[in-house]
Queue: 2 jobs
Job 1
Amino acid sequence: MSARDEQPLLSVRNLVIEFTTRYGPVRAVDGISFDVYPNETLGIVGESGCGKTVTGLSLLRLIPSPPGRIVRGEILLQGRDLTRLSEDEMQILRGDEISMIFQEPMTALNPVLTVGTQMVDVLTRHRKLTRKQARVVAIDMLSKVGIPVPNKRIDEYPHEMSGGMRQRVMIAMALSCSPKLLIADEPTTALDVTTQAQVLEQIVKLQDEFHMAVILITHDLGVVAETCQRALVMYCGEVMEVADIESLFERPRHPYSRGLLDSIPKLREEKLAELPIIPGMVPDLMHLPPGCRFGDRCSRATDECRLQRPQLDTSATLRNAVACFRPLD
Amino acid sequence: MDVVKYAIRKLVGGIPLILGVTFVSFLLMVYFGPDLTFEMLGKNPTPEQIAEVRKELGYDRPFLVRYSQYLKELATLDFGLSDSTGEPVSSMLIRSIPISLALVTPGFILGNLLGVLLALVAAYHRSGWIDKAIMGFSVVGMSISFLIVIIAFQILLSSSYGLNLFPVRGWNVHSLYDYVMYVTVPTLASVFVALGYNTRFYRAVIVEEMTRDHVRTARAFGIRPGKLLYKHILKNSAIPIITRIMFSIPLVIVSGSLLIESYFGIPGVGKVTFDAITTGDQPVLKAVVGLTAVLFVITLLVTDILYRAVDPRVSLK
Amino acid sequence: MSAVTEVDSQMPDVNEHHESIWGKALYKFRRDRTGMLGLGIVLIYFIAALGVWFGIWGTEWSDVEGPKWGAMSAEHWFGTNIIGQDIFQRSLYSTKTAFEIGLIVAVLSTLLGALLGALAGFFSGTWIDAIILWLKGVLDSIPFYLFVAAVAFALKGNPWAMHVAMVSTFWTTTGRLVRGEVIKLRNFEFVEASRAIGVPQVTIIFRHIVPNTFHILLVQATIVFVAAIKSEVILSFLGLGVQDGVSWGLMISESTMEVLAGFFNNFAWASIFLFVLVMAFNMFSDALQDALDPKKVAES
């Protein structure tokens, strides 16, 4: 665990990302702030459409530009503001200091190139290695992620591997240049439960070994519970709560977090008549209420909630904060 | 060895197709075709003369016999003599095919090369004004009839109302200079029209590849745009692009040359075919149709093999 | 989930009552200005064609009463051709010819393509499919112009030979697309469900599956319309096209010699009429494709 007064590795402040759609401009991410500390695993949790993927992509400035753009905000990687770097500088950073892995292992790798070619490409891009030397490193990485017979596998094509194995290849590729930060966007969603567990285990083990921070983006609270030290909960493009795992799961402060946790089906002593759900629907991004975005669905909402947007209360630190006028504590 | 076995299997599989094409064409053109009997004779032919001519032309034999005779000719590449000129069909073809190739090849290569380049530019500047301009130009190219383009270019380049730089028609080629003179106007016309269709198609393919997940992955790992373009976009676009180029080959050689050659009076395969159509010259028609069918099947085969070279997902099964 | 689809999934459904592909398509199409312009122009041509059909105008197309190669004048708006016929009248009459060819070929080839494509797709893997595919291969391999010539011979110079030949070859692309779509649809659960209830196969094909291909059929029909009109031009030049009446193709073929002598009216006006209609139709067809499916569902 990191010390309380350690400097964050990554600091995001007031990030706003807008998309131009045929119905007008839409803010997928509307002023979020969070910190990531070295060697920790931070989960970003929320329903589909809450902006978590967009957030992940924005850290590497991979938002497709048209139609999207970063309107304002800062992304500070050890003091450097990534929003101000040139595209060339970003290209040097991607895959080297920050790596990202994606959800669909089926399509994330190029089907007409061997796994080895793709890995060697990344290595030779960021390190002064010959292709032969890079190949050796790649084989080593493959074995680190638990792929058997890596010297044979390296010459295979993606379609010759299972989904789980492909995801491991992605992880190997992402870690091959020892990044400081790994962003994993729903890495296990497309995999079956057993493979999920294996891949997550792999990520956790490697994180330790490589001393890197991990941002794990997911909608699955179970995954968060298993792998993260802290998590932030997003809703409608905003951060509702950020807390360390035990606090979040045992004493959620935001009503939305509470609702999410309550709706996980679990074994209880007394059987419930119905599975608890959060009433109502996510507001559409073109017609947002002036106040708290969760207001309509919140049983604790007051007029103040509906008219004023609650900000993340940073009086403590951004390690643990909640954006609510009437938090649950 | 695998490749050879595969090729043989595919060729054999193409036989029903060849049979089908030759059968249908034979039925339509030869069986229902014009009866040249009376052309060959003078006035008031006697029944014996008629019978003799018919025997010579082979009209008196039953259909299936004539058809199998045709297949034999195709297999041995011996098509007999032209009904209208008396020249051996094979030598007509040997003479005219190289001319057609010399005529259509520059246009074909340029049309596709430029098409891919323009498509790349358009795709790179997607939704920008360059893209819109290129696409606008494509739609225009697609909307003007080939004939109109030919005539227009003729006016502009070969007549006294325009630049008068190039010969109006014909093919009097004895040197490289002659070749350039005679081939330019037809080439410009075909490139203009081909670009319309090609650019649109290639742009669609390239855009589709550009938006694929693996391109995003490569970007996420910092791969440089140039390498991205080549290794991830073009290589993957190769399959549909190759398919299209390959399949347009039989089309371009026969149909394309037909029009250009008839118009410009160039003695290639197209013109030979056209003349054969108007005079009802059966041996020539039989030869052209049969060979086209074979060409088509071979094209299918070669395309298949090319797939394998470019896409490892396809297997030789 | 990609960034864009994540955002897109939050977008409101503007036409809340029209969840179908058609409702959305209509909304999108109406906002596409190029497409609407194209449609407008096509309609103008169509009205012109109707007028000729009902004898309201364009009736003097074959009258030989003007000067040879007369210039454009108040009496002969576009001038006259080599035998003194009014070019404007002929151009106008040709709109009827064009629509006749375009509509007949488009409708018939689309129907044929839908029928054969649906059968091939539904029974894919069986001999029915094999035969239809073989037929498609054969027709695709015969060079188009040769085929038209052959059909013209076989039908002994019947003016409908051209239409027959076109329909016989233009159905193949539609057929291929429909077959692909039907194969996809066949695996959907609603087909399984219908079978389980005992709905007869024919009904399944034509009542349930084919209607889901209408968007493909519509787009293909527009593409074939354009192809038919353009093919007629070249066929008429080769002497295999329109036999009676006049068409832009015939006008252009007539003009091939005279342009080198400096008489451009015939050529220019026929070309302009043809180009504008084809271009407008292409714009309309494009907008239609975009509206029905952002990924183009058809091929040219």
Note: The mean pLDDT of chain A is 86.
Job 2
Amino acid sequence: MSNVLLWAPVAFGLVGLFLPKRAVGWWAVLGAVATLGVAIGMVVGFNGSDSGLQYTVDTPWISGLGVDYSLGLDGLNLFLVLLTAVLWTGGIAFAAFREQERPKTFFFLMLLAETATLGSFLAQDLLLFVLFFDFMLVPFYFLFGAWGKDRTEEGGPTAAAATLKMIVYTLIGSLLMLVAAIATAIISADGGHLTFSIQALQHQGLSLGSQRWIFWFFAAAFLVKMPAFLLHGWMPDAYRAAPLPALAVFSGVLAKVGAYGFLRIVLPLFPAATVEFQEIILVIALASILYGSVMAFTQTNVRLIAGYSSVAQLGFITAGIFALRADGSDGAILQMVNHGLVVAPIFIIVAILVERTGSEDLREMGGLALRAPVLAALFLIVALATLAMPGSANFVGEFYILNGLFQAKIVFAFIAISGVAMSAYYALRLYQGTMHNRQPDGLLSREIGLRDALVLAPLVLCIVALALYPQLILKRTNPSVEQTVAKVNGGSAPNSQLAKK
Amino acid sequence: MNFNEPHIDYAGISPLIALTVGICVVLLSAVFKPTKRWAPALTLLTLGATAGLLIWHWNDPRNLITGALRLDDLAISISLIAILTASFCVVLSTGERAAEEAGSGEYHSLLLGSVLGMVLLAQATNLVTFFVALETLSIPLYILCATNLRREGSLESGLKYLIVGSIGSATLLYGMAFLYGGTGSTGFAGIAAGIAHNGLDGDPLILIGIAMAAVGLAFKTSIAPFHQWTPDVYQGAPTPITSFMAVATKAAAFAVFVRFFDVALGSQLDTWQPALAALAAISIVVGNVGALGQDSLKRLLGYSGIAQAGYMLGGVVVASEAGTSSLVFYLAAYAFMNLAAFAVIVARERETVFGDDIRAVRGLGAERPVLAWPLTISMLALAGLPATAGFIGKLYLIEALVEGDYTWLAVFIAVGTMISLAYYLRVVAAMWMDSGRETVPGGTPAIAGASPEADPVDPEAGRRWYLVGPAVLAAAATVFFGVIPQPLVDFAAHAGASLF
């Protein structure tokens, strides 16, 4: 099952290279839907009370170097895999409804990116994870650079330059992570059998001295990817350059790989260093919340509003993980899914708005709700979910995170709360600025087309469904999360009372 | 008085015999009119026969000519890399003006002569064979660099290479003299025994010898700060020869580098290890920073070669089986990555008026995808991105370095790779993210920058099988060994095991 899930997208993509140009978009949609089907099948068949890995594949890949091809699903990655499959389906379908330049290569790269992302979620071998983590960048490099938008008239960089910046930033972390991963395995093996299996490495503890530097090498990779405050320099340029369907999946999923990496690798493998550096990471996370929110208030480019709001949301998720309590991490995983589900529709809506208004500036939009009530209604649901309205799954996620944080570090929790309030402001500002207000002259509002509604409505439906039943995720996530968090706390996890209820 | 007939292991030296015969046959074939056109085919035949004879001895190590040579898996694997590169070079030379002007027979027999030097060098276990092999390798290359008679740059390149190469050889020879003086032996094993026996541990005589030998070899492998010749020579030489030089020379020189330092000077590990590590670090920085502003693709690859040599030197530094294996793996991967790039450069050089300037590949993604993909894969692989042999090579090297307690050098490799992205991706961006309106294949060279002595443009060069084929083949191998690296890992592990 895991193998099928992982390789189906790229297999479809390769076949698509040999199809006629008109059919290739639909073929890609078919590929994404098929992958989604497999992912749903795996979620249905998942045993929620088991904290161990399921659907495992484990074969030696490069035996001389101790690298295995091993995949598996547990509570930590199950729903992130599903999220990937859902968002890619949406993104590809949205792109397929539109004319693309060089469509064969475009859709091939999109599907290749899906395989790479699924690979980094599924990998249970440290080196395989690093490999997929780095490889994710390659398709996005081409997607952003070749299909992106030059911003030279606005005094910004060309798409190629913006993408190069992104690559250099993210690979700084990734390459150090490669060294750190190899060091982890070699120091753990201590002259014995060399293995990169994350499961096996958990049982061989590292000395605190080694953990310290290795922790930061990994943290660098993950924090850049998110991006966290001070390491986000690549984000504005790349977000403005990127083609919107690719950006929807990029923002929806790739940032989460960083947060997921903390849960999968850093917490269980470097527990002592995690405890030692908990507060530093929390400070970074809170700085991301504050900085991201404030920037989201002031930007007028709609892409950047969404982009900076992601910085803030990812700060929240990181804070949840580094509460180092089961409820914090439960909330973090739920919130990763939630945020993916809201940010991708936002970018799709932005794409629709840009087509209507020909501008990405909030000041040049407005009054669209008048003629497009359905679009406005869909957008409203997304916006309310973004600001974590009680009743939404985002509310539940943020509640879990804050609950964990309160019990771990109360001072940080108080600051984090301000982030919740601020999210209301930027979400509503984005909604009002585009949908309400005065309609600028010469702007024609049109209702959302049936095809775009077909993309958007299911995503919104997912948000609603999750709002009604967040336990779907929490129940299956909790056993694995408790096990992970227990590693940090020396075996005894503070129980998450919430999930039990 | 009895005369003891020396035992000659003809089977063991058969690859050398095949090459020598090949050189004569190729040279003579050019003398007769009906056989004049056969030189490339005969060269390939010779290379194929040599490769076959080498593979025959795989996993069957033996000492030859009273210990002057040793035919083991390390020697065979490096020789095979050199032969592979030479074969590519022969194919890429089809239609190359330099080859025709210099005389096809001479051109190809010189190439074979250089290969002979490399095969010898990879086997050398004696200072004398070491030096003779190195000169056999170098002298034909000095000439080959200058074969593009009408280009000023080509002559300059040959001359520069000759002068700098001679300095390197002289330094090396001087160093050898010190080692011989101290130990009284020219054999690698004899030197090791001599150091131990004469109590020369850490003796200045030996240290000077080591230092000078290291400098001489650093010249040959273009390790900074002894690299200044590399970009100029790479740029000036005919491109197929550049590709041969970049890959094969490096492979052969590294083979003797690792053998000489591990076998003869293994006891002096503590003295040369930090020095070589420092050289590797300098090389990584100098190569990567130097490549940043280059517009000429050949110069860019020259600087990138300096940086890559720095990475590979890491495999020598750790002086372990894993280090040597990772070095061989990286050399093989490096061969594929570079050959793909050079094949594309050769095609574009003939197709456009821009020569090897980066403008020659602008908009290549839309115009000639079959050339753009190999160059893209090559650049991504050189930058060490996953799903290419370059990634596995870096992984192998870093593993060896961390195991050998040289984690800081591994971090240097990571940092160097980061810098390198800026120039490798610049090439990729030129191909895919830049509309190539400026390049009109076959158009009149009305644009500034076209040199008057440039070769005539062949608008169909980008479709010729002998240019596209090697590019695609090398790129496919790069990806193949990035996804299924096990065969190449086994190959390299065998080679590494032969020294330890």
Note: The interface with chain B takes residues 61-65, 67, 102, 127, 131-132, 134-135, 137-138, 141-142, 145-146, 158-160, 163-164, 167-168, 171-172, 175-176, 178-179, 182-183, 186 of chain A (CB under 8 Å).
